[in-house]
Structure formats: structure tokens, C-alpha cells
Amino acid sequence: MRALTQDRYGWDALAVREVPDPVPAEGQVLVQVHAAGVNPYDWHYAAGQPLIARPTLGGLRGPRPTVRGADLSGVVVEAGPGVTAFGPGDEVYGFGTSGTFAELALADAGSISRKPVDLAHVEAAAMPMAAVTALQFLRAAELTAGQNIAITGAGGGIGHFAVQIAAAWGANVTGVCGPRNAAMVRELGASEVVDYTQDDVTAGEPRFDVVLTNAGRYPLRALGRVLVPGGLLLANDGSREGLLGPMPELVVAPLLSRLRPYRIVNVTATPSGEDLAVLDGMVADGVLLPIVSATYPLERAVDAVRQVAGHGHARGKLVVTLR
Ligand SMILES: NC(=O)c1ccc[n+]([C@@H]2O[C@H](COP(=O)([O-])OP(=O)(O)OC[C@H]3O[C@@H](n4cnc5c(N)ncnc54)[C@H](OP(=O)(O)O)[C@@H]3O)[C@@H](O)[C@H]2O)c1
Fold first, then answer.
1. What burial class does residue 144 get, using C-beta atoms within 10 Å of its C-beta: 0-12 exposed, 13-18 middle, 19+ buried?
2. How many CA atoms lie within 13 A of 107 on its CB side?
3. Mind listing the pLDDT tens digit for each residue in 194-218?
4. Which one of 152, 185, 190, 321 has the lowest number of neighbouring Cβ atoms within 10 Å?
5. Which of 128-132, 214-218, 260-264 is modeled with the greatest confidence?
6. One domain for residues 23 and 134
7. Rg (CA), the chain
8. CA pair distance 37, 93, nearest whole angstrom
9. Do 159 and 137 contact (CB within 8 A), yes or no?
């Protein structure tokens, strides 16, 4: 099969190559990939950023798996031993384990779900990592109707799903984004939009119960100042590079938050077929819709990953098409 692979870190190591077809192990399915969503996650693995994360990205020399891509939507071609929930011909979407910028990919049966019937593969492929991350963060916040939430990076992958989910749950959403995404973010359910080129969301009185920061590299202390006492700061901006990247903010800040009048929480999103089914229900109810701003053939998948590298400005989601 053809796949976007690399045997060491770095953009110049990435190329579309012919590699052996993967074989499903116990609990896995083999999926013919129709489309694969693009995430900053792919940049972390491609570039080996931040450096301190390399042991968890696969090793000091290069990433594991060697094929890039984490999200998929496609058709099951083979179920491995022990898999009863899915069989050949089933249309599924979810998280791959062997790399999904590939004609075939493996997925754990517990990390996929039936593809939403109202969505094409390109749209379904846009959802897994970004929408599940948004859902798991907002669930951790125990967000309730009537609360005020600010979401930075509201025009991006996680942000545009978080705006929709928070609005569906009855929260008052302030979306922080660039000017070209303002109308989209408002249409998705934000009652207020802050254009970060004109206004600073960290200025003004404490007014938010929850802040979800996906982008912008705002100092957490500055975001904390606009939280009401007892408020919750969901720290999810992983865009910094270098040796430590976002680690000091994402790991140390939650520990220090005991000294502050608000809590800081970071969630590591977990692949979950059950959460994909929850999102499928929201799509069916008409309250959640993925926005795909561009598609790329496999040969140009690297260009797509570059768009979400570091301080990216992707609008909604980018998707690699395989069929
Ligand atoms: N916790 C986890 O398990 C987990 C899982 C996945 C991803 N992440 C992290 O989540 C972050 C967001 O991921 P994503 O998929 O949503 O990224 P993305 O699709 O690349 O979106 C980033 C968005 O940020 C916007 N942006 C850039 N500068 C901004 C600023 N100053 N203020 C407000 N918005 C700004 C960009 O749009 P405009 O500037 O054009 O408006 C872009 O739409 C990444 O850092 C990633 O590493 C965490």
C-alpha cells in the first residue's frame, strides 16, 4: 500500500512510499481509508516537537508508528481475532493505530464507531481527535447551561467543535479567533466573538466561568484574571516548540493552581468509540457539524500537516483524501 512515512524526525524525512499492508491483531480491524483528518498531533510526530516528548513519540531517532496520521474514516475490510462489533463492509470513523495517511490502517475496535450516516467520509474523518478532545475537555469542566465560556482558537479544529458542543449544552460562548473566522464562529453558536487582532480577551473584568485555550499562546496567568473566583482554566495550547514546548504550562501550572483563585486543568484526550458515538448522536440531532476548509491528496499530505504546525491558522479542519 501507499503511505506517508518517515524513518526519522524532520520534514525532509517525510515521503509517500510503498509499504507492506498492515495485518490486524487481536481486537483490531483493518480499514480501507477513504479520508484522514489532519491534526497538530501529526506535526508533533513529524517534527519530533517538543524535544522532551520524543521518548513518548516513539524514540530519540524517529517516531513510531512510521506512518503519519491518526484520524480515519473508511470501510472495514477485515476484522481481527476477537472483534465482533465490526465486520467487512462496515463504514467506520475513529482513531487509527498504525498511521492513517495510508491506503490501509489498523484501528482498535474500541477506538472507532459507525460513521455518522449524514456525513461523507471527508467530513467524518475531520472529527475523531478534535471533536473527542473538545468533548472530553468540556465534560471535565462539567459545563452547564447558562455558564460563560471563552474558547481561544475558536476557528480551528478543536475550537470549532468546542463552540458547537458548549452552545448545544446551553452555555454562553465567547469565541476568540482571527477576523476571517469571526462569521463562522458566530454561526456555529458563539454569542460573542473576540477578534484577537482588534481586542484582547484577557483584558477587562472577571467574567468567565470557564476558559478553554487552544491557541494564542496567552499566558495562563492573564487568562486567569478574566475568570470568576472558582473558575476553571482548561489549558490546551500545545503549540510551543523547543526543548520543553508547552510542558511547563501544561504540567506545572495545574499543580500551582492551588495557589490561585481558579483551577487549571489539562486533559489528555483518550481515543474512545463511546465518545465517537456520542458525537454521532449530536450530528444526527443537527447540533454538530464538522467544517472542512480544504482537502489534500496523499501526495500533498505534508503540506496539510505544515498548515497546523506550531502556531497554525487552519480554518476548521484539513483532511487528506485517499479515495
Ligand atoms: N489535550 C489533548 O489531548 C490534545 C489533543 C489534540 C490537540 N491538542 C492541542 O490543541 C491545540 C489546538 O489544536 P487544533 O487541532 O484545534 O489546532 P488547529 O486546527 O491548528 O487550530 C488552531 C487555531 O488557532 C487559531 N489561532 C491562531 N492564533 C490565535 C490567537 N492568537 N488567538 C486565537 N486563535 C488563534 C487559528 O486560526 P486563526 O488565527 O486564523 O483564527 C487556528 O484556527 C494544539 O496546540 C494541540 O497540540 C491537545
1. exposed
2. 38
3. 999 999 999 999 999 999 999 988 9
4. 321
5. 128-132
6. no
7. 19
8. 10
9. no
Ligand 1 atom nearest to 179, measured from its CA: 41
The reported pLDDT for the residue numbered 240 is: 81
Q: Is residue 278 part of a domain?
A: no
Question: Which residue's CA lies nearest to atom 48 of ligand 1?
Answer: 236
Distance 205 CA to ligand 1 centre (A): 25
Q: What is the pLDDT of residues 62-91, one digit of tens each?
A: 999 999 999 999 999 999 999 999 999 999
DSSP 8-state class, residue 42: H
If you take atom 29 of ligand 1, which residue's CA is the nearest one? 216
Atom of ligand 1 nearest to the CA of 308: 20
Domains contained in the chain, number: 2
Residue 57 pLDDT class (50, 70, 90 cuts): very high
Give the model's pLDDT for residue 313: 87
177 CA: nearest ligand 1 atom? 41
pLDDT of 155-165, one tens digit each? 999 999 999 99
Average predicted confidence (pLDDT) for the chain: 95
Residues 58, 84, single domain; the answer is: yes
pLDDT at 264 over 80: yes
Q: How far is the CA of 161 from the centre of ligand 1 (A)?
A: 11
Separation between Cα atoms, residue 139 and residue 123, nearest integer Å: 23
Pocket of ligand 1 (CB under 6 A): 39-41, 129-130, 133, 152-153, 155-159, 176-178, 181, 196, 214-216, 236-239, 267-269, 308, 311-315
Sign of CA dihedral 117, 42, 138, 96: positive
* Residue 310 CA to ligand 1 centre (angstroms): 9
Which domain, by its residues, includes 213?
130-265
CATH code (residue 310):
3.90.180.10
Place of cell 499492508: 21
Assigned domain for 91 exists: yes
Q: What's the pLDDT at 237? A: 87
Same domain, 114 and 151: no
Q: What pLDDT score was predicted for residue 292?
A: 98
Same-domain check for residues 147 and 55: no
Which atom of ligand 1 sits closest to the CA of residue 158?
16
